[in-house]
Design a protein that fits this description.
- This protein is α/β, with parallel strands linked by helices and 328 residues long.
- The chain has two domains: 45-155 and 290-316, Rossmann fold (3-Layer(aba) Sandwich); 157-287, Rossmann fold.
- It is built from eleven helices and twelve strands.
- It has helices spanning 10-39, 56-71, 89-101, 118-126, 140-145, 157-169, 188-204, 218-231, 243-256, 274-278, 290-307, and strands at residues 45-52, 77-83, 106-109, 130-134, 152-155, 177-182, 207-213, 237-240, 263-265, 284-287, 314-316, 319-322.
- The strands form three sheets. The chain has a six-stranded parallel sheet with strand order 2-1-3-4-5-11, sandwiched between helices. A four-stranded parallel sheet has the order 7-6-8-9, sandwiched between helices. Strands 10-12 form a two-stranded antiparallel ribbon.
- Helix 7 (188-204) links the parallel strand 6 (177-182) and strand 7.
- Helix 6 runs parallel beside helix 7.
- The longest helix has 30 residues, at 10-39.
- It is elongated.
- The relative contact order is 0.13.
Length: 328
Amino acid sequence: MRGFSLTLPARCTCRILALVTTLLGVGLLAVLSTGCRANGPRPPRIALIMKSLANEFFLTMEQGARAHQQAHASAYELIANGTKDEQDINKQIDLVEQMIAERVDAIVIAPADSKALVPVCRKAQQAGIVVVNIDNRFDQAVLADQHATIPFVGPDNRKGAREVGEYLAKRLHPGDPVAIIEGIPGAFNAIQRRLGFEDALHAAGARIVSVQSGYWETDKANQVVAPLLTEHPDLKALLCSNDSMALGAVAALRAAGKVGKVLVVGFDNITAVHQLLQDGTILATVDQHGDQLAVYGIEYALEMLQHKGTPADRETPVDLITANTVTP
């Protein structure tokens, strides 16, 4: 069988060569363009890891962070995650591990536990990830043991609790029986808020008849307060370490017919307590600006990524909120 050959006119051959050259050029430009985008500078990715998203406070925190990112879309990308409840420590550890695997640039974390989250956050640092601690301060002894320096960006919880405790104490008499409903035992912010309440109550001469944990949750606080009201029928006040627990305390007071007879204060200034502040069911709370708390941490993480300086703690504001100052 004879070989087959195709002979084309010179003009046609030139046209084909020109077309091939053009197509190759377009393809090369596309590859180069894609390569430039892939290899060019990208905004840093910041992971926000929170506690229970069933708590309005952390939903507000997430919303504030997302609004900030949308307003600064070219500055950074945001990955926001949280847990189902306040005590899901293992889930938080898993979330940090995931962010390490995804090689994010920074992690801003509100730890469910002041001690248990330190090792995995140290691991993140060793992987070259900036870590900023918000809301609940890491335990200093554990940080030292892990040879970790992680900056805390957040409020002075003891100061905030002392302010709301002092506001309440003005309505008490020396010797009046009161109870404290604290957060998760061992959590730094829970400890500091309890101490702040105690500072104010001791100064006023009030008698603390019980300190019990509501584990930051409404239902658990309700379960704790209900028997307290029977055990201490002359109870004058309940100091709750967050507003979710204050809501549980109010529910118990309603069931016992004691709304207005027992003073209640909280901490966080979530919207769910605003009407209760206005009608006097809850006397006062503390605003630690939950919508901005993650933003403060994110902005600090961006500073650290840019300047690579030695991290230092940064205190954020707290404000006393009463019926006169609450936003309708």
